[in-house]
Write a structure and sequence with these properties.
The protein is α/β, with parallel strands linked by helices and 395 residues long. Helices cover 41% and strands 21% of the residues. It is built from 13 helices and 14 strands. Helix 2 runs parallel beside helix 3 and helix 11 packs across helix 12.
Length: 395
């Protein structure tokens, strides 16, 4: 069933708006509103009923241009999607798109002029996917801060690009509520969880994930297991010893477990972090620098710590198909990791275009919806084949 959306066209070119309205009508029973400049567009946005879901925005307009409109959207906390439509140069459009994202907006794409029907429909489909994802995330975030339930790991396959082999799985935590709902990380790592609680929570998640890995291994499906590790847990006394005990209890080797370090909040002592991570590598664990390309500290961590893997953040992967700066960053990161003898994983790959791009950049392992979402442990290994083919994608 196609969701009806309210689409606001903000453009001073009447021919463009007429064509856009015609294409929107052909795409389904969507509602459209039209504004000839930014000021009128803001007025329509404020009075819109139902609220505006998608803004199709020109950049060069009288009274209030597209850049000022983006800033106004950010200041108003607009949660819908934005498509930039402009005849300006690619560099200007890219800069506007980055500005929108810096303002916290969902800028789903950009279109040139004149408007091409197929390109516009593809961008509308991208907006629909983004709006559905935002709604799901909002529902999860709106859950009570201390939801009761059972922590259940799901697993997302990591696929070797060369031959489609399943080489590893990342444990992604879910909370199963008494009524059977599955909630994501916000419900597990809620505001009531103190830093002091993180080590025990992490050990509990690792215990459950390793138990599943041990069961797979007993069935002849040994693969490496990746587990997220908040850097703050490394402040806890004896944490590394506890991890080693877990591995031994489940009959695994440290080399079959990769810990993905996130830098959302670093420990108080950077020297302590370097020491603990070096000890983990000495113990034989794999160590991945997660979300690479999003934080200010991860380049410094890469210099200081003995990581075995670099994990390119999905925001880089997904923007590189359209943004040459992100594309160059991706290529240089892969080249650097290769020179350092590190494995490279690209996460968040969703379209064939993104898959082709990361393969051309030299990425060896891919993780993302194009192959599989995170699934229950009993579904992690397909019954008929051990190789994966990309799922159909519109990208």
């Amino acid at each position: 069933m196609v969701t009806t959306r309210h689409i606001l066209i903000v453009d001073d070119d009447p021919i463009f708006t007429a064509v856009a309205e015609s294409v929107i009508r052909s795409a389904g029973c969507h509602r459209t509103s039209v504004a000839a400049d930014g000021r009128e567009g803001l007025a329509l946005l404020a009075a819109a009923e139902p609220p505006v879901d998608v803004v199709l925005l020109d950049l060069n307009m009288p009274n209030l241009d597209g850049l000022a409109y983006l800033r106004a959207l950010g200041e108003r906390g607009y949660r819908g999607a934005v498509i930039i439509s402009s005849g300006e140069s690619g560099a200007i459009v890219d800069a506007a798109r980055q500005l929108g994202r810096m303002l916290g907006l969902q800028v789903c794409g950009a279109l040139g002029k004149p408007l091409r029907r197929e390109a516009f429909l593809a961008e509308l489909a991208a907006c629909e996917a983004a709006l559905c994802e935002t709604a799901a995330a909002a529902e999860s975030l709106a859950a009570p801060q201390a939801v009761q339930g059972e922590i259940v790991p799901h697993f997302q396959p990591q696929i070797a690009l060369g031959d489609g082999r399943l080489v590893g799985l990342e444990a992604l935590v879910r909370l199963k509520t008494p009524d059977g709902r599955l909630l994501g990380p916000p419900a597990v790592f809620h505001a009531g969880v103190r830093d002091a609680d993180l080590p025990m929570l992490t050990l509990s998640i690792a215990d459950r994930a390793m138990a599943e890995a041990a069961r797979w291994r007993a069935e002849g499906h040994g693969r490496r297991l990746s587990i997220n590790l908040d850097a703050r847990t490394l402040d806890a006394a004896g944490f590394q010893t506890d991890l080693l005990r877990l591995v031994e209890r489940h009959g695994l080797e440290p080399g079959s477990v990769v810990f993905e370090l996130t830098e959302t909040a670093l420990p108080k002592s950077l020297t302590g972090l370097v020491e603990q991570l070096t000890r983990m590598r000495m113990a034989g664990f794999g160590l991945s620098l997660d979300d690479y390309g999003t934080g200010t500290a991860n380049y410094a961590l890469l210099r200081l710590c003995p990581f075995s893997e670099l994990k390119i953040d999905k925001s880089i992967v997904q923007s590189a198909a359209l943004d040459r700066v992100s594309r160059l960053f991706l290529m240089s990161s892969v080249a650097m990791a290769s020179d350092l003898g590190m494995e490279v994983v690209a996460e968040g790959v969703e379209t064939r275009e993104q898959l082709t791009m990361v393969e051309a950049a030299g990425v060896s392992i891919v993780q993302g919806f194009i192959y599989s979402p995170a699934v229950r442990a009993d579904l992690a290994f397909p019954k008929s084949t051990w190789s994966f083919e990309p799922m159909r994608s519109t990208g």
